[in-house]
């Protein structure tokens, strides 16, 4: 059976299934005499203490493995454990109902989960996973049962779960967990971010993978294409074994590229950068040989805080990345909240079409109190490295001018305060809506660079909701309209004497690397794991040959024809590429 989900982390894995936490816990309602109340309360307090120690242990391990920022995810778990409202409700119900504490606790937690699932606030909805995870841990201590964790696994397995809680994911160990697949989740979930950091193949959003397999089954996880193949026949297994071997051999053959320049055979220099969400990804950026950070998504910094981050907190984070990457550059994308990313404390009203609504630069311009704090922090950090500023979702020159006006005000403030910053900090615009692409000649006069955001540009150009499965077939990066827009933006940028990069998914897809190179793209920015492959392609071809291939591709009528043509040319130029 072939299951299709969302590719969360690339690579191929073949192995036995380990279904995490499939056990259903039965909690029996047991009446207790009043004299046993102190003992039940003591059991409850003891379970809370044991769970707290468990979480602190996980937090310590993950801090050592992946850094303190990932470990901070568990602060939310600790807050649930210390929630006085929940604790007092359990004790009050115990006294009133005279029923065993595990039954009362289970009932209260289920009610909390049900209530949180009904609220429209996306941030609060996300807390359901924390409550469910903590609730289960406390319950198991009360029942005297040991929870099977990923840390207990003694053999190589593919983990299958409805969802992986942050604490589950924290137990992932590359040695034994060779891949995972989940029913729910998205590309920006904590699990997807951690899978990429650990370089484990992963597919999320499969809907019913937990019902399609059982522990011990052999399955294939194709993290590059978002596929899970259950009960594979010998022919399919052989095909994927071969692919897996080729990927491993190819990856090993690319390690020597890390310190080599990203240059075509006839001498065209191309900038190859990495996309990051958090500073803890810097080791991966460096180990894969990136020339800089082409996209630092700052909204994740906001989302992991319960309050708006202060200027000092932001300054410290941006300064840290700038210093680590110096002398190479770091492009900081200003706040891109909205769409599917919300902070509950901002109380942003739910909209019919949030991806086309009050988000990104629109939100920032409407809330200059928040935007100015970020701009000041970036400017101050620019004194410690080569930082550049990029505005998301610019749709017209008025937005650009207003953003630059606020940036100018912050520069004036810092000058008056004698605070050092890079006086010539470069400013760019993301080109991710058709109106920006069509007016690129106007925008180019106001910025130092463009960065093409293909995920949204494709969505808006083709009028296709990229998370709607019914019309997923319409999401075509190689659609002639998309390619023409990309080429047009690059040509206009060069005509205006500014450089043009790309930080969307297309930049990391080998199938499109030749075309983008041929169009004249100056910078490719992608997930660190994709960097070696893109560098290998660029170093294997002459720029003139890539230009010829790109021009030929534009003559085709459909995206399918273009993709097939590009794949054929790629196989000819880099035969071993996987």
Briefly characterize the structure.
By secondary structure, the protein is an alpha/beta fold. It has 24 helices and 16 strands.
Structural class: alpha/beta
Poorly predicted regions are none
Distance between the termini: 23 Å
Proportion of residues in extended strands: 5-15%
Count of helical regions? 24
Order of strands across the biggest sheet? 1-8-7-3-4-5-6-2
Count of β-strands: 16
The rounded Rg comes to: 25 Å
Look at the structure and give the mean pLDDT. Answer: 87
What sort of overall outline do the alpha carbons produce when their principal axes are compared?
globular
> In which range does the helix fraction lie?
40-55%
Largest beta-sheet details? 8 strands, mixed
List the helices and strands and how they pair.
Elements: E1 2-4, E2 6-9, E3 12-19, H1 37-66, H2 68-71, H3 75-81, H4 84-97, H5 101-118, H6 122-143, E4 157-161, H7 166-170, E5 177-182, H8 190-198, E6 202-204, H9 209-212, E7 218-222, E8 227-230, H10 234-254, E9 271-276, H11 282-287, E10 293-297, H12 299-303, H13 311-325, E11 329-333, H14 360-366, H15 368-381, E12 386-391, H16 397-416, E13 426-431, H17 434-438, H18 440-443, E14 449-452, H19 454-461, H20 480-495, E15 499-502, H21 510-519, E16 523-526, H22 531-540, H23 543-553, H24 559-573
Parallel strand pairs: 3-4, 4-5, 5-6, 9-10, 9-16, 10-11, 11-12, 12-13, 13-14, 14-15, 15-16
Antiparallel strand pairs: 1-8, 2-6, 3-7, 7-8
Helix pairs in contact: 1-6, 3-6, 4-5, 5-6, 13-15, 15-16, 21-22, 21-23, 21-24
